[in-house]
Sequence to fold (122 residues):
Amino acid sequence: MTLTRRFIALGLPALLFARPANAHHGWRWTDDGRFELRGLITEARLGNPHGVLTIDAEGEIWKAEVGQPWRNERAGLTDAMLAPGTDIKIIGKRAADPKDRLVKAEAIELLGALFELYPERL
Fold:
């Protein structure tokens, strides 16, 4: 069997049954509408590829993706500002699946100031 025929016989069926990965890179996993979430930061995991805040919003626990360290810094945010116990408002896009309590932050309001992570999306 030639190499081309072997590829067709073995590779093509594998490609037909392959599924896209369930990763949520970019914005495709989000809903189109604007979403706002207010609550108290209970946990902060900051760093690459992006930070994740755990927020208690009236007893519901949410995860909020914030920017990469460079994006947060460019917006004027510091890690100390995102400490547990801080009141926060997330402005962004929520997960398209309403069962997922997950939001991607486009802007963050805290300490009386607005920090625009993605000003081009606002």
In short: Residues 28-121 form a domain with the OB fold (Dihydrolipoamide Acetyltransferase, E2P) fold (CATH 2.40.50.1010). The CA atoms of residues 8 and 14 lie 10 Å apart. The longest helix spans residues 3-17.
